[in-house]
Write a structure and sequence with these properties.
By secondary structure, this protein is an alpha/beta fold. Helices cover 48% and strands 10% of the residues.
Length: 1134
């Protein structure tokens, strides 16, 4: 018995299935119900629905159609193997063995040219293995399609015919593909030699159908009942096999089809096809007579379902139609737009067509402006799409208390590309429970990513960041007994010892680059180990190893500079880092060898044991890797493939299978479901959301391969990714019960230019414009009412979630947000008032009892805003994290330049000639490689030599002078070093306002000490002097600076030393041009090309976002009061 059921609602088909099981239970309680579905998601939904209906859903199997039919083959026919030798995996490896031997044949010339048969020196050499493997996969994929959709070709080819046989001319125009029949015959011959069964899917169907027809008695071999549920399309051969099963008296086959339209539409043509036919029709034939009334959405998007329906209608079987009428008017009497569109598809109608009136819109159906059943949102990118979706879902949940998260499905073309944004919006907000299905396991799991990174080590640079990323994976840290603090410490050491990339100095030679001097892992580890063993000391003569690490072959002797920052217990962490790098070096040779799969398996299983100590969740991932290796070995065993496998092929194969393996399918888990748009996801949800409906992205196009013969000679019922996606969109539109939400990237985030939506969304919008009008706009002409409706339907969102439009929306904008945390960003109070309203009281002990340290006062004037945040609020904006570089240094940044100059200047003053210091610097690994480093060092050394010459007459033995000054605020205490009775302030770079102010504060302190003297200031260009001041002159100036410190401890101080100094100098130079002085201050504060402004400092930016008039006027007052005495006193040193 074979019965076909049609309905436009999956829910009703499910009810029919439930009633069938209720009315006629299986004859034996332990027999299993067989329900064929096309996806695990559909199986999950059906299980839940059956459990609701029966109280329990058990002893039910949900096989996929292909595996069910193969199972039937094995039961009915005698010698069918449990697994087809013609599955894609087996065929790929068979072809890997067969194809290289056939490349010399004339027919295979195109493949030989593609594979490139070795190199120019050896044209007969073997083709590159990865390329061959990728080609064999594509060919196996194609042969797999032929077995299902072109069994007649396969049969002809096996009989020895070529592309064009006696019975068929459909490939008559094809050239250059004669290798396909030949290759198929070779494949069959080899498969027959390995496995006695000559069955494959093309010849099995005939045999299966014959067997069912001629054998009367098949006891216990056939299921009593088969349901086929919710499948949008089946290949013709599958339907034939099911029909043959249903022709047996003891078997019932119930085929449930979701049919969007109650009338026959199997010959419906879309506009494109109609336009093509127009030229071919007999003169006088009217196109309207060729096709009656048709729904344009069904005609355009329904090709997949239409072909399937046409195929089913040719079957002479009983059909039961159970269509549900759709009522487009809600309880209030308003037309619901979504219901109306669904009704038009059901009734094969086209609203607004035929009764066209350009001057008014009375022929269109009015819809209420408050109707939200179809929402379309244009955003600037995927992140904004999810932020908007989050707000809209919250609004839906608030408006309809009966709507729960499990009633919402969110589908997109590729959930992997949206994964991080879903976590960033839904995960961070935590208001809506959600589950993500269909993500690739390798994308979700750092462990799998690190395993694939280990496989790629032979071709990797072994950059510092790369290896630390592998080490940072929790299972790897556990294996090497490191905790998070130790790992962060290791990062700092790696940065400071100059490790950049490569295992040793010779490592770059494998990339045809010159040897390095330093910057490799071995170089850095030796510095660390030597420093730990002997502390800070002179360079030690060492040896440099050759490329085969650990072989102990000595190359040129190189010195090692100890890195003395590691001591005591820290040595343990260092030992673990050395253990990790040693382990990598040990596996490198194994990972780059060409070897057989059992050898690879042994190597990789050993690698897993050596690098991972997994917890329960991670063990599942390690098990996935082990099982993939075992499956691969089984496949190769079946195909008798025993050639050695290259490292490239291993990386490609494992990368592909681990990338394709899906992580847990948390579908229908009681939360908002995020998933990829896949066939048969037409499960009814109250709210269906589609994201990423962008032009060129959806429908997804899969270009056919150049040698795909099915693309040349297409037939009805062939599958195409584009047609599948068009039908998916239609299914989503029809399966939404209450609302359909669609978003796309309507604007460029770069320049705000318009982007067009997917052609499917554009067709939907066109249809809505043609047939509907906003209530109240009926009198407007057709064009205007259409524009008004479009404006109402498509909500255009701003670029940012904190746009004013969300919080202060204009009338009719329909913008709103629930993200109240963005509100403060919208109305910042400019200046320091944004940061702090009142003043913090000074701690009571900071008075007369506790003196003020001079070092603290100097630290305050370096960066007043930073000092306040650090000291008073205990806030630090810097992450204490090493900045890991993956390439050797090519130039130094500003800070490194400065540090290098300071070191060179010290050594010039201490030793005269700094050759020893220069050698030490070259051994740190912080200088650019080779001549770049030497030339840079020469330039800086010469510059510091000149500065040292200017300094030498004034340098002497340092004497510490105690500072203990009584001021109104309390005691100021500290020490100042003087040389030859003077204070020397030296800077290897150029002085700025801050340096001069710090020198001035020390000078004032010195003037009030027991050993008053003058202060000399030297930088790379100028020599300046502050003459000795009397105590009476110095005290009020110092007291004013300390009072300003007290003020800056209560609230951020609008005083920026460099900006203030530039402003004051400009005012002194041209007192009548205050605007020029203000401009100089702004330039220094905001920065510019290659110059970092004082206002770009994170602490200043947090307290004073901009140098507005209020802040500038306060700054000018402070500059006049505290910096004018410095400017007046400062003179050039003669």
């Amino acid at each position: 018995m074979f019965i076909l059921y049609h309905s436009n609602q999956l829910d009703l088909l499910k009810e029919l299935l439930v009633s069938r099981i209720r009315q006629a239970p299986l004859s034996h309680p332990f027999d299993r119900e067989q329900i064929l579905v096309q996806s695990p998601g559909m199986a999950q939904w059906l299980k839940l629905e059956l459990a609701k209906a029966f109280g329990i859903a058990a002893n039910i199997e949900f096989p996929l159609p292909a595996s069910f039919i193969w199972e039937m083959f094995t039961r009915v026919l005698a010698d069918v193997p449990r697994q087809s030798p013609y599955n894609k995996g087996s065929m790929s490896w068979q072809l890997m063995t067969i194809l290289p031997a056939l490349l010399s044949r004339p027919a295979f010339a195109p493949l030989a040219a593609y594979l490139g048969g070795g190199d120019e020196q050896d044209p007969a050499g073997d083709p590159e293995q990865v390329r061959l493997w990728q080609l064999c996969q594509k060919v196996a994929d194609l042969f797999d399609q032929y077995l299902v959709y072109r069994p007649d070709w396969i049969a002809r080819w096996e009989e020895g015919e070529g592309l064009v046989g006696t019975g068929s001319q459909d490939l008559a125009g094809v050239s250059g593909q004669d290798w396909q029949p030949e290759l198929w015959r070779e494949l069959v011959a080899r498969t027959l030699a390995l496995s006695p069964s000559g069955y494959h899917r093309a010849n099995l169907y005939e045999e299966f159908i014959h067997e069912l027809q001629r054998t009367r008695d098949l006891p216990g071999k056939l299921p009593q009942r088969v349901f086929v549920f919710g499948i949008s399309a089946l290949p013709p051969r599958y339907v034939e096999a099911l029909l043959a099963l249903g022709s047996r008296p003891e078997v019932e086959v119930h085929l449930f089809v979701t049919n969007p339209c109650r009338y026959y539409w199997g010959d419906l043509l879309d506009r494109k096809t109609l336009a093509r036919l127009e030229n071919k029709l007999k003169p006088g034939t009217d196109l309207d007579t060729l096709q009656g009334p048709a729904n344009p959405l069904l005609a355009s998007m329904g090709k997949l379902g239409r072909d399937y329906l046409h195929q089913l209608m040719e079957l002479e079987v009983p059909q039961i139609e159970a269509f549900v009428d759709i009522d487009e008017v809600d309880a209030s009497g308003n037309v619901r737009l979504l219901r109306a569109i669904q009704k038009d598809v059901l009734e094969l109608g086209s609203r607004g067509e035929g009764q066209f009136d350009l001057d008014s819109s009375h022929h269109k159906s009015p819809i209420d402006p408050t109707d939200g059943s179809l929402q379309i949102h244009a955003c600037h990118g995927p992140m904004r799409e999810l932020e908007v979706l989050h707000d809209r879902l919250l609004a839906l949940f608030e408006r309809d208390p009966s709507l729960t998260p499990k009633d919402v499905v969110v589908m997109m073309p590729d959930v992997n590309s949206y994964g991080p944004y879903i976590q960033a919006v839904f995960g961070a907000r935590g208001q809506i429970p959600f589950a993500v299905s269909d993500r690739a396991a390798s994308q979700e799991s750092p462990l799998l990513q690190s395993f694939l990174a280990l496989l790629h080590l032979p071709s990797a640079r072994l950059g510092a960041g790369e290896l630390l990323a592998i080490l940072e994976v929790p299972a790897v840290l556990r294996r090497f007994e490191l905790d998070e603090d130790e790992f962060n410490q290791l990062r700092v050491w790696v940065q400071e010892t100059g490790i950049r990339w490569g295992l040793d100095d010779a490592y770059p030679e494998r990339f045809e680059l010159p040897r390095m001097s330093g910057n490799s892992w071995l170089f850095g580890l030796r510095r660390m180990l030597l420093g730990f063993a002997m502390g800070d000391g002179e360079p030690v003569a060492g040896m440099s190893f050759c490329a085969d690490y650990g072989a102990g072959q000595q190359g040129a002797v190189a010195s090692i500079l100890p890195y003395a920052e590691i001591e005591g217990q820290q040595g343990l962490a260092l030992g673990k880092l050395a253990w990790f790098v040693d382990s990598l070096a040990e596996f490198l040779p194994c990972l780059q060898r060409e070897q057989s799969l059992p050898e690879w398996s042994a190597c990789l299983l050993d690698l897993l044991d050596r690098f991972y100590l997994a917890d329960e969740e991670e063990e599942r991932l390690l098990q996935l890797i082990r099982s993939q290796l075992a499956d691969w070995q089984t496949q190769l065993g079946e195909a008798r493939f025993d050639q050695p496998i290259t490292a490239d092929l291993l990386q490609d194969y494992l990368g592909k299978v681990l990338g394709e393996s899906r992580s847990s399918q948390r579908f229908l888990a009681g939360q908002v479901n995020f998933c990829t748009l896949m066939p048969m996801r037409s499960i009814p949800f109250k709210q269906v959301c589609l994201l990423g409906m962008n032009d060129g992205v959806y429908p997804r196009t899969l270009a056919p391969m150049g040698f795909d013969l099915m693309a040349v000679a297409s037939r009805r019922g062939d599958r195409s990714r584009r047609d599948d996606d068009r039908y998916l969109f239609l299914e989503a539109l029809l399966s939404a019960q209450q609302g359909l939400y669609i978003s796309y990237q309507g604007f460029s985030a770069q320049d705000n230019s318009d982007k067009v939506p997917s052609v499917l969304l554009a067709e939907l919008i066109d249809y809505v414009r043609q047939g509907f009008v906003l209530a109240g706009d009926e009198a407007l002409d057709d064009e205007t009412s259409g524009e008004q409706l479009l404006k109402h339907l498509v909500v255009e969102h701003p670029l940012t979630p904190y746009s004013r439009s969300y919080f202060y929306p204009e009338a009719e904008s329909r913008l709103f947000t629930y993200a109240a945390d963005w509100l403060p960003a919208l109305n910042p109070v400019r200046g320091a008032a944004n940061f702090q309203s009142g003043e913090l009281p000074l701690p009571p002990e900071w008075g007369k009892e506790q003196g003020l340290e001079l070092t603290e006062l100097l630290r305050f004037y370096r960066q007043p805003a930073k000092y306040f945040l650090n000291r008073r609020l205990k806030v630090w904006f810097e992450l204490n994290e090493a900045n890991i570089e993956d390439s050797e240094p090519f130039e130094l940044d500003g800070l490194q330049h400065y540090q290098l100059k300071a070191l060179l200047l010290d050594s010039h003053l201490a030793e005269g000639d700094s050759a020893v210091r220069r050698e030490r610097l070259q051994l740190t690994g912080l200088l650019p490689q080779g001549w770049f480093g030497s030339l840079l060092l020469d330039d800086l050394d010469a510059e510091m030599g000149k500065l040292a010459e200017r300094l030498r007459p004034w340098v002497g033995e340092k004497q510490a002078v105690e500072i203990d000054i009584s001021l109104a605020q309390g005691q100021l205490q500290g020490w100042i070093d003087i040389q030859k009775g003077r204070l020397l302030v030296v800077k290897p770079g150029s002085f700025n306002g801050k340096d001069l102010l710090l020198g001035w504060i020390q000078h004032l302190c010195l003037s009030l000490s027991d050993a008053p003297g003058d202060t000399l200031l030297f930088d790379a260009k100028q020599s300046l002097r502050l003459p000795k001041l009397s105590a009476d002159e110095a005290r009020p100036k110092l007291a004013a600076l300390v009072a300003l410190w007290a003020q800056g401890m209560k609230r951020p101080l609008p005083f920026f030393p460099n900006t203030a100094w530039d402003w004051l100098k400009a005012m002194e130079k041209e007192p009548d041009k205050p605007d020029a002085a203000d401009k100089a201050a702004l330039t220094r504060f905001n920065g510019g090309w290659m110059v970092t402004g004082e206002g770009q400092d994170v602490y200043v930016a947090r307290c004073f976002p901009e140098l507005d008039e209020a802040v500038l006027s306060q700054l000018q007052v402070l500059a006049r009061e505290h910096l004018t005495p410095l400017l007046k006193t400062l003179e050039e040193l003669k």
